[in-house]
């Protein structure tokens, strides 16, 4: 299991019973001040808390009840804000390092706590078992996920231990079970090869801490450290569910000489940032075609949007997922954390991706994937402008790679000279 997000990590935000010194180096603490909560609201909360503690059919201890109330506080905001216990918080950080025990699937939690598959990660147990973007996991080991406040936790376990997931899939009349064996997953986020002399293919499956350096190493290997310049590159971001925002910035920087890559904007000063490319395009302006589909989400949309807006690449495929928000992970003093949506991100042209996605320059048809869009999630952060209502499509197989290669050889891929802003 992996949760889908562009991720920022912040220092610990201490929550104490008694006033504590403010650490001005912590951007969250430094920029937030205690708000005045109406006394009537405090009394109402305490009344509900006490009523549940005293009258619920089974005893509930204070810590469990307080965590439940905190989860409720966050879950009603948007689909990506949540309370993480220490185990879940540690797992989230481990995910970004590309090594963890699980089945290897990116998911989004639905309001009923079922898990919608955004994408299985290449080469993982979930991928080999045939899980597809758009599948909905409704039960794990026979236990329904309805009412489970932490459905992701049920997918974790020891390496070598099997887990049975119950799947609902568009086009299938009945749910079906899939048995998957958990394993230690070491994600190789970047892979590549020459399609033919002068034309290369690079696949980025997810954005983790080593993706930027790995992409640079791959491009140097494909060009012989610049001794064999490429005539074109097919960059495959299909069903890439995202990951670290910083990794997407590094990856885009490898193909840009200058200019804005992405801008984030939120309510606090630390949420407002602009990320720019440094000189040094490793392909020296050779044309690029970026393959995307409805499983292309989050940080992957950041990279596709940056290359598109700078005229550095053509985008080919179907409209992307439309997750244009940034989540900040704030550790708490008890080892738990909160994951909070703190900003939207914007492409260099100023376009928000949130609930809209990126429209491709060259449209390819694929398999319809209903409800696999950010705009279909209950409580999603609103779009700026009109949200697109069309269903997404999954573009699978090697045929799309062939189409991209044809565009490169025909000279119809976007040249660096053309910009959209």
TrEMBL record:
KW ATP-binding (keyword) present? no
Residues that span the membrane, as ranges: none
**PDZ domain mapped to chain residues:** 89-147
Q: One GO cellular component term, please give it.
A: outer membrane-bounded periplasmic space
Signal peptide start and end residues: 1-16
Q: Which InterPro entries match?
A: ClpP/crotonase-like_dom_sf, CtpA/B_N, PDZ, PDZ_6, PDZ_sf, Peptidase_S41A, Tail-specific_protease
Which keywords belong to this entry?
Hydrolase, Protease, Serine protease, Signal
Q: Which GO terms describe its molecular function?
A: endopeptidase activity; serine-type peptidase activity
Instruction: Give the Pfam families listed for this entry.
Output: CtpB_N-like (PF22694), PDZ_6 (PF17820), Peptidase_S41 (PF03572)
Q: Cite the SMART domains for this sequence.
A: PDZ, TSPc
User: Which GO biological-process labels does this protein carry?
Assistant: proteolysis; signal transduction
Family under the similarity heading: Belongs to the peptidase S41A family.
Q: Which NCBIfam families match?
A: prc (TIGR00225)
Quote the protein name from its UniProt record.
Answer: Peptidase S41
